[in-house]
Amino acid sequence: MKNLAEELKSLGFCRVSVLDGGECGIAEKRLILCFIPYESAPEDPDKPEAVIHPYYPVSQRAFRIIRQYVRKQQAAGFRIRQDTQIRIKPVLNRLPFLRQGRNTLSYLPEIGSRFHVQIMVSEEAIPVTDHLSALPHPVSCGECRRCVEACPGGAIREAAEGELSFVRERCLRWWMLNGQCPPDFVFASNGNRLIGCDVCERVCPMNPAPDPHQTSETVPLEQLTDGENTDALADAIGSNYARKTRLQIQSCVIAASTRRRDLIPRLQEMAESDSEPLRQAAQKGLDVLHSYCFPPDNPV
């Protein structure tokens, strides 16, 4: 495994960091972090389809690359495995080559916050490439408050200099992955996003501008309301993100947020679902759509 970093970089990863397991608080000798970048696509809020943030297809592709790499190394007798359970943020917050944003994201030089990290652990004595700082990074944003002002839900709060204040229940992405019926502000501000938000990253001066040649993957909203295409979505973004009920709840949010009144019949069907969160989301979506059709000051 002498050429571990070179081999992984040839597979699309931009940086590989080998850390001492003891420093990271794990039982294994080494923690291996594989960084893969992705490009941001220009936002198109008028698209009638549900939009998938580019992070998720890239993270799924990286997961498969590492899974195949690990199988190859294990077949050769090396003690290494893929890990998806380690809490990585505390580690990233102490890596000396990263910076910390007010939005709680880590920033990689020249790439910004648009990267995904795949994790491996190993009992092999691979040479350590980086050591963790004794303390987490302070916020490196100076006087900038762009993400605070831009966050649709107000999840990023003002805090003392060098400190973070993040309210996860006000984050759109948190509700996308929650599996429960979201509160009203999500229905009002979600737009056509199926998974991923990106607002705080778009306004951040530490990130490059979106690539005008990139396009985000989309899914017809009708497929989501019908609970179709979940297998294909699981293949593209991972089975954990492509759970049928979770996608249907999000379809109710998108239908309401983008005023898709043509989907009222489908939401009416979902309002009779056996799933209580889906019933609630469908009814709330119907309430929003009916308010567009028949505003309170013009009752019918």
Describe this structure in words.
36% of the residues lie in helices and 13% in strands. The chain has 300 residues and is of the alpha+beta class. The chain has two domains: 4-40 and 55-122, no CATH class; 167-293, no CATH class. Strand 5 and strand 6 form a beta hairpin. It is globular, with a radius of gyration of 21 Å. The mean pLDDT is 92.
Order of helices and strands: HEHEEHEHEEEHHHEHEHHHHH
- Assign a percent range to the helix content: 25-40%
Distance between the termini: 72 Å
Low-confidence stretches: none
Q: What count of domains describes the coordinates?
A: 2
Q: Give a quick account of the main beta sheet: strands, pairing sense, barrel closure.
A: 4 strands, antiparallel
Total beta strand runs: 9
Return Rg in Å: 21 Å
Strand-residue fraction?
Answer: 5-15%
Q: Helical segment tally?
A: 13
Short overview:
36% of the residues lie in helices and 13% in strands. The chain has 2 domains: 4-40 and 55-122, no CATH class; 167-293, no CATH class. The protein is globular and about 65 Å long.
Question: Which key phrases capture this entry?
Answer:
13 helices; 300 residues; 4-stranded antiparallel beta sheet; 3-stranded mixed beta sheet; alpha+beta
Topology:
Blueprint: H1 4-10, E1 15-20, H2 21-24, E2 30-37, E3 50-52, H3 55-75, E4 80-82, H4 89-92, E5 99-100, E6 106-107, E7 115-122, H5 146-150, H6 172-176, H7 184-189, E8 193-195, H8 199-202, E9 217-219, H9 221-225, H10 230-237, H11 244-257, H12 264-270, H13 276-293
Parallel strand pairs: 3-8
Antiparallel strand pairs: 1-2, 2-7, 3-9, 4-7, 5-6
Helix pairs in contact: 11-13, 12-13
